[in-house]
Write a sequence for this structure.
């Protein structure tokens, strides 16, 4: 099931996405969900065309835990070795935007990069999750773009500013709850030109590895997000560019880059 979060007439709700097509092409409708989707829920039967609503980030995470250098070719293209343990960092909630929202080019950077990623959405509070229980705590999957101020990342020891600035974490367009994430095509395009193309099967550490590793240290809450790393092909974004992240079985997350006002 595809579950979107949206606003209409000043109200925010969740809905199940029905129909065929894309956000841009039309043909999709939302069946409004009663309550929140992390527990047992009912569909209201009240349906609205997706074209009549504004899509919001599909979740509002308490925290986004991101993993760096989880694809060997991406580590190599930036001159890094594969780390012995997962490299984890945080992106703040203020970095999260939805599909169609603008990425604001930060004033402290001259080298902004796209990073297409599969995002894991957590469905229940969990800590110290054993490998065999990981599927029980995952709500679903969505597309993400770990937008990075590469020059700031290279000159600063911590990545907080480089990867945590406002609008640096586009998520969307919705969460797909019924999906095998082990071997999905993942790509990024800029102005329609393909920049990244990889498969989730190329991850160094699996989703199970990451959930076990992260929850050894911290409690994850419903709606929290794990970014699983990016394949090779990262590259620059400029003001005016439109960047799209497409993941097989989920859909396409699209954002335009604007000058921070």
């Amino acid at each position: 099931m595809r579950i979107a979060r949206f606003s209409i007439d000043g109200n925010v709700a969740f809905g199940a996405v029905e129909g065929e097509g894309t956000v841009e092409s039309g043909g999709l409708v939302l069946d409004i969900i009663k309550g929140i989707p992390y527990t047992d829920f009912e569909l209201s039967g009240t349906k609205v065309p997706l074209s009549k609503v504004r899509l919001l980030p599909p979740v509002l995470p308490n925290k986004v835990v991101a993993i760096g250098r989880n694809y060997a070719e991406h580590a190599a293209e930036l001159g890094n070795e594969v780390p012995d343990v997962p490299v984890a960092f945080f992106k703040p909630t203020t970095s999260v935007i939805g599909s169609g929202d603008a990425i604001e080019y930060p004033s402290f950077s001259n080298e902004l990069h796209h990073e297409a990623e599969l995002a894991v959405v957590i469905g229940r509070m969990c800590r110290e999750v054993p490998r065999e229980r990981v599927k029980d705590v995952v709500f679903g999957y969505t597309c993400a773009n770990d937008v990075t101020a590469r020059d700031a990342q290279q000159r600063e020891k911590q990545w907080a500013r480089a990867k945590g600035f406002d609008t640096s974490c586009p998520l969307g367009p919705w969460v797909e709850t019924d999906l095998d994430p082990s071997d999905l095509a993942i790509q990024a395009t800029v102005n329609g030109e393909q920049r990244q193309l990889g498969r989730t099967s190329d991850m160094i550490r699996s989703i199970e590895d990451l959930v076990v590793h992260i929850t050894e240290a911290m409690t994850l809450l419903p709606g929290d997000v794990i970014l699983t790393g990016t394949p090779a092909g990262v590259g620059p974004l400029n003001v005016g560019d439109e960047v799209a992240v497409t993941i097989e079985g989920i859909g396409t997350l699209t954002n335009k880059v604007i000058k921070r006002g």
Remarks:
- The chain is about 10% helix and 45% strand.
- The helical segments are 72-77, 134-137, 150-155, 160-164, 207-215.
- The mean pLDDT is 95.
